[in-house]
Specification:
The structure holds two protein chains of two kinds.
Chain A: E1 3-10, E2 14-17, H1 18-25, E3 33-36, H2 43-55, E4 65-70, H3 80-87, E5 95-100, H4 105-118, E6 123-130, H5 139-143, E7 147-154, E8 160-169, E9 175-176, E10 185-186, H6 189-211, E11 221-224, H7 229-238, H8 261-272, E12 278-284, E13 287-295, H9 307-313, E14 316-317, H10 320-326, H11 345-350, H12 352-355, E15 359-363, E16 369-370, E17 386-390, E18 396-404, E19 414-421, E20 426-431, E21 444-455, E22 458-467
Parallel strand pairs in A: 2-14, 4-5, 4-6, 11-12
Antiparallel strand pairs in A: 1-7, 1-8, 2-3, 6-7, 8-13, 9-10, 12-13, 15-16, 15-17, 18-19, 18-21, 19-20, 21-22
Helix pairs in contact in A: 2-3
Chain B: E1 10-17, H1 28-43, E2 52-56, H2 65-71, E3 78-81, H3 87-100, E4 106-113, H4 139-144, H5 146-154, H6 158-176, H7 190-194, E5 198-201, E6 203-204, E7 214-222, E8 234-243, H8 247-250, H9 260-273, H10 278-281, E9 284-286, H11 292-301, H12 310-315, H13 332-336, H14 340-355, E10 369-378, E11 381-390
Chain lengths: 480, 394
């Protein structure tokens, strides 16, 4: 048996109510809100968050394969999966790849990882993040949201067994974006919905159900990608599904997260699933992937760190202006401070364990944890008695803090705090996702992986702290 | 282990100091020439008499020729010193040691900085290649971390705390208004300070020292030679520098209500000078008031106030010009701005004037010992200097 052994999600804290767009542009707004990645977040940093959401409950793991899927990679040339593996502190002896270029690349990555598992790799990690932009005042701007999902695939402790899938490919132009395009472009919907989406999905789903001798009613959850909920629901009905079988598209709460969208929906389905239920995942983009899973008893034994529900439960409202600023759609007056200089590649490489996986060191003579890693102990001055010590996920609280209106920031004011970690160790770091008015000494914070700053085209990833987001609600599965 | 020190072995016999401020019409070279030639004149010496130079600058130039070119120094040694905000004091310290060692009879220590040409707000430090992990806080943000921690520890609410800080800025501006060499020569009301725009919460712009251009210089000779040059030499009693290990950024036992480097530098200097009761024995001090909470904790770190009592002493006027222990009689960094390499020598210039009775309307009555203090870096890791000078031997 092979399939999903763990899952996780990430939805950024920022939420843009669609009426905030209407207030500025005058365009009629769809109901609900969309999740907006912070100015310091992107598809990769969100994938790291989702990956940690998925892996944290598992303890020490070393997947043989790590795939990062996105249509919005931070670099066109430079692998994101290697950064992902580093940030998740996975061993270097791992096959990494970026899978990109299609709204279907999330399911592409999932299938490739399942292939790897079936080919003998013990476990494989897939993290999918997307941060797509619709042009201002357009329909896609309202529809798109940001988010990420992650899955560990394997052959042991499978909580959703992969029963099989059908993939179709067809070169049909629905949505596209060249390397120079900032915004998604689209063909007239009537064409690609009727000739592409509806036709290909029907073909794949009927073929897959037929192969397993199943009727739509046998499937507990249909996780169906849709360009928007209207097309999703219409197609589900045409396929013979009842509307209550269709997994929430997240349109109202998070928006449609590109290639990560259907996989976030899959996380939503798994969070509520019961042993024995069938889940059908269907994606679309230059073709269609349909994957069938059967939920096992192991579903009861796994909870992500926060999951989709946990992430949706905490939100911070932003307005349209902030959104335009964060996505660099409108230029801002720069601060009257020098731009940050580019970091040194050898420096980043040497400090890789600290920078990506958030390691400090702990003195074996006096036991003091310290960040960043040291050679001479700051407490007892012992030399080279240090062992690596990972600070990630250790509870931390604010010792003192400041709100800096002077320094360079893409979203001023910048907030800095001194953090004390439970068990020892201290760090002075930048805070994000916070309301400067609501800070206090003693406030609990947690670390989050961010795009720290960009200089000379280098995306400099590092950790910041944020006020602790709400924990997973344990009131659990449907029917509990 | 503290050093033995060079108490009473060298003396300052002349000093110069430019006006500090926005010198749009003057270059670094102009400022250095102005300060050096004023110092020569003050000591009654010619450039040819000076045997060696110690030149402090942080950002404005590299190596000795930054000084030797403008002053046309004729093939003599120039040592460039950089120790962040303690640069000027450290240049002075090393110059004193060279004279005390017997290597030279007469030397010049000079500090200079040209900051206003950068075009940016606040202090700009050149970018060093690094691993991209350092938080990019501004200097006011780094020092503002002291305020919430101090308020919380000693039970001040935000409003009380802000008032204590404002009282420090108010005092320094009041003193600076009396000083023709200060950048800002205006008294500022408590209300103006309290309502100034926030720069790094809880600090407003009026809690911060300014950015300025400036230069200051001192002619140093052996103590026994001092009276050949002047009737009123100023003797060096103690020179101390402490560089910290960054303990406060890594260890939880540091609580952001003190700056340990200042405590260590002061302890060392007091031992060198034989001071046991600083609040009583020190007549006046020029301290590093880069930001108001810095000056607040300095009072405690230098032993001028008991722990947790500095804020009361501030409100009681202990450090006012007419208080028990005047601090920053010349107006401090608050009125002068902070051209990094020059500030330490500017502070000594005020001590020089005061000890010689030449400080005009801000003259302190009969001062015997003066202390200067610089602080560079951050509250959790810094370089601190303490220098003590006096008008009498012994």
């Amino acid at each position: 048996m092979s399939g999903i052994v763990a899952y996780g999600a990430y939805v950024p804290l920022g939420r843009l109510p669609r009426r905030s767009i209407q207030n500025v542009t005058g365009e009629p707004a769809a109901p609900g809100e969309k999740a907006v990645a912070g100015y310091d977040e992107d598809s990769l940093s969100m994938a790291v968050e989702a990956g940690w959401d998925c892996l944290a409950p598992l303890g020490q793991v070393s997947p043989g394969v790590v795939y990062f899927a996105t249509t919005t990679p931070p670099y066109l040339e430079k692998q994101g999966a290697a950064t992902l593996a580093g940030a998740l502190d996975l061993p270097g002896a791992v096959r990494t790849a970026d899978i990109t270029g299609s709204l279907r690349c999330g399911s592409n990555a999932l299938l490739a990882a399942l292939d790897a598992v079936q080919g003998g790799v013990e476990t494989a990690l897939v993290a999918v993040g997307d941060c797509r932009l619709g042009a201002p005042q357009g329909a896609w701007e309202q529809v798109s949201g940001d988010g990420a999902a992650a899955f560990m695939l394997g052959g042991q402790n499978v909580l959703a067994e992969y029963l099989g899938g059908v993939s179709l490919a067809e070169d049909i132009l629905s949505q596209w974006r060249t390397a120079n395009d900032q915004f998604v472009r689209t063909w007239e919907e009537r064409f690609f919905i009727s000739k592409g989406y509806n036709r290909l999905v029907k073909k794949a789903v009927s073929s897959l159900l037929g192969r397993h001798a199943l009727q739509p009613a046998d499937v507990h959850r249909l996780v169906l990608y849709g360009p928007n909920p209207r097309y999703q629901m219409a197609l589900a009905r045409q396929l013979g599904f009842e509307l209550d079988q269709v997994q929430d598209s997240l349109f109202a709460t998070a928006g449609m997260a590109g290639c990560a969208g259907p996989l976030l929906m899959l996380v939503g389905a798994l969070e509520e699933a019961r042993p024995g239920q069938l889940i059908l995942l269907v994606t679309f983009g230059e073709g269609c992937d349909a994957l069938l899973f059967r939920v096992t008893e192991a579903i009861e034994r796994f909870r992500p760190r926060r999951g989709l529900r946990g992430h949706l439960a905490s939100r911070r409202e932003i307005n349209y202006h902030t959104y335009l600023k964060w996505r660099q759609i409108i230029p801002q007056e720069p601060p009257r401070r020098p731009d940050p200089g580019r970091p040194s590649a050898p420096g980043m490489w040497r400090g890789g364990k600290q920078k990506l996986a958030f390691y400090g060191s702990r003195c074996q003579e006096c036991g003091t944890p310290q960040f960043p890693p040291q050679r001479v102990c700051v407490h007892c001055q012992a030399v080279d008695k240090m062992v690596p010590y990972r600070f990630l996920d250790r509870p931390a609280s604010i010792v003192t803090y400041t709100v800096d209106y002077l320094t360079f920031s893409q979203d001023p004011p910048a907030v800095f705090a001194v953090l004390d970690f439970e068990g020892g160790g201290r760090m002075i770091c930048e805070l994000t996702d916070c309301d400067p008015q609501k800070l206090s000494i003693g406030m609990q914070v947690e670390m989050t992986f961010r795009s720290y700053y960009r200089a000379d085209g280098i995306v400099n990833y590092y950790w910041k702290a944020r006020p602790r987001r709400q924990e997973v609600q344990q009131n659990g599965r449907q029917g509990d | 282990m503290a050093g033995r020190g060079i108490k009473d072995r060298v003396a300052i016999v002349g000093m110069g100091c430019t006006r500090f401020g926005e010198h749009w019409d003057k270059s670094l070279e102009d400022l250095m020439v102005e300060a050096a030639y004023e110092a020569y004149a003050s000591a009654g010496v010619e450039p040819k008499d000076i045997q060696a130079y110690w030149f402090g600058t942080c950002n404005s130039g590299f190596c000795g020729i930054t000084l030797s070119g403008p002053l046309k120094i004729q093939y003599k040694p120039v040592t460039r010193v950089e120790n962040f905000c303690a640069t000027g004091t450290d240049a002075f310290r090393n110059a004193c040691y060279a004279v005390a060692s017997g290597a030279y009879d007469i030397v010049l220590a000079i500090g200079a900085e040209k900051l206003k040409d950068s075009g940016y707000s606040g202090l700009v430090i050149p970018h060093l290649l690094d691993d991209g992990m350092k938080p990019n806080y501004s200097a006011p943000a780094a020092f503002s971390l002291l305020a919430p921690a101090y308020f919380k520890k000693y039970g001040l609410d935000e409003k009380q705390g802000k008032e204590v800080l404002a009282r420090i800025a108010w005092k320094n501006h009041k003193n600076g208004a009396l000083n023709p060499r200060a950048q800002f020569r205006q008294e500022v009301s408590m209300e103006q300070i309290l309502k100034s725009p926030v720069v790094a919460a809880p600090l407003g712009i009026m809690d911060c020292s300014g950015v300025a251009d400036g230069a200051a210089a001192a002619v140093i000779v052996r103590a026994e030679d001092a009276h050949k040059y002047t009737d009123k030499p100023v003797y060096v009693k103690a020179l101390s520098i402490a560089c910290g290990p960054g303990h406060g950024s890594m260890h939880q036992d540091y609580d952001f209500t003190t700056i340990r480097e200042t405590v260590h530098a002061a302890r060392d200097a007091y031992q060198q000078a034989g001071i046991t009761e600083p609040r009583r024995q020190i007549s006046m001090a020029e301290v590093h008031d880069c930001f108001t909470p810095t000056e607040l904790v300095i009072y405690e770190d230098l032993g001028f106030s008991e722990r947790g009592q500095a804020w009361r002493d501030v409100l009681d006027g202990v450090f006012d010009l007419d208080g028990q222990l005047p601090v920053n009689p010349d107006g401090g960094l608050k009125s002068f701005g902070h051209p990094i390499g020059a500030s330490g020598l500017r502070m000594l210039f005020e001590m020089f004037l005061q000890l010689r009775g030449e400080a005009g309307p801000r003259q302190i009555k009969d001062p015997v010992l003066g202390l200067t203090h610089n602080l560079g870096g951050f509250p959790w890791q810094s370089v601190a200097s303490v220098c003590i000078v006096g008008r009498e031997l012994g």
